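Incident log, support desk, overnight shift.

02:14 A customer reports that sequence design results differ from what the structure should imply. Their input is reproduced verbatim below. On-call engineer (initials T.W.) acknowledged and began investigating.
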């Protein structure tokens, strides 16, 4: 049997200067021709390393010897005004121009340095508006390859709702827009960056969502703290999704959990909206897609006894969420 292999290198700026940014990560990807139902072909993340030393050094361990594509990107919370686009070794935004690292019989490969380009790549731009055509500012626009999960790149809309993503690869993408904390349903569209086209336009119109608010009680009517629990409402079928544990930087901290980024297959409005917990004994679903669905809550080390809305018991029952309707005073009764 072959031992696991290691790749060592540095992340460098356009002029060869070391890049020391703890928000950067370097990932080794292996190409595959088949896989799970949601991703029959594409790239599988094999190993990841953060850039933590002053000279920009990274180290990828546990590699099995297959040819690899090496990528560097911002991996932290989407809070930067100008995040770095994903870049491939030896220094290009274009994946087809990436140089594969062939390990051969070597246990350690060194000097795999990635030089970040100062410009280049393709541009995706557009505008995010509401149902009246008014621009929506501070919406999070994030983009993923359809065949490469976890290669997040993002920006935020300006005061007029405009956005611009520069430094993109060619190929197929899914673009997500999140302004849930402002009451809009999260949505997504597919986009293709053509090799012969430097810029591509893609606009979004966000639908108004429905807010659902409530509280938790035990069987005696006393407030109950939710602890490490989760909940959601699903009003429309959704595709396979992989989540990132952070959301829109402008969302209040108390509801940011419900604005978690999703790289979800398909297009259209997101049919699932998750609970946030403004206080330990209350919940808020900020922007559910109107439709018919079931409110679900999954407490840790407790059991849901019933879910009440007014005098109606809606436990394990579908409810209709109408446009323009907010649902308040939902009570979830639990047995600790």
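02:41 Re-run completed on a clean worker. Output:
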């Amino acid at each position: 049997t072959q031992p696991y292999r290691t790749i060592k290198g540095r992340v460098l700026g356009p002029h060869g200067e070391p890049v020391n940014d703890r928000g950067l990560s370097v990932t080794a990807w292996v190409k595959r021709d088949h896989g799970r139902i949601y991703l029959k072909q594409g790239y599988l993340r094999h190993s990841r390393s953060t850039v933590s030393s002053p000279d920009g050094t990274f180290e990828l361990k546990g590699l099995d010897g297959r040819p690899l594509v090496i990528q560097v990107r911002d991996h932290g919370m989407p809070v930067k005004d100008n995040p770095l686009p994903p870049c491939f070794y030896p220094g290009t935004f274009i994946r087809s121009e990436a140089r594969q690292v062939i390990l051969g019989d070597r246990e350690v490969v060194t000097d795999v340095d990635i030089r970040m380009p100062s410009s280049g790549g393709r541009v995706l731009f557009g505008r995010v508006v509401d149902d009246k055509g008014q621009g929506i500012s501070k919406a999070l626009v994030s983009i993923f390859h359809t065949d490469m999960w976890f290669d997040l790149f993002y920006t935020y809309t300006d005061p007029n709702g405009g956005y611009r993503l520069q430094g993109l690869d060619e190929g197929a993408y899914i673009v997500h827009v999140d302004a849930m904390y402002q009451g809009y349903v999260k949505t997504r569209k597919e986009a293709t960056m053509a090799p012969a086209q430097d810029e591509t336009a893609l606009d979004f119109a966000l639908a108004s969502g429905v807010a659902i608010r409530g509280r938790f009680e035990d069987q005696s009517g006393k407030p109950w703290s939710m602890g490490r629990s989760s909940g959601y409402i699903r009003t429309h079928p959704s595709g396979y999704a992989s989540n990132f544990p952070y959301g829109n930087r402008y969302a209040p901290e108390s509801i940011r959990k419900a604005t978690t980024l999703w790289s979800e297959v398909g297009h259209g409005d997101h049919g699932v909206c998750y609970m946030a917990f403004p206080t330990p004994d209350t919940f808020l679903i900020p922007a559910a897609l109107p439709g018919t669905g079931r409110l679900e809550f999954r407490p840790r080390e407790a059991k849901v006894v019933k879910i009440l809305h007014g005098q109606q018991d809606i436990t394990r029952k579908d409810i209709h969420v109408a446009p323009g309707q907010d649902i308040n005073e939902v009570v979830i009764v639990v047995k600790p």
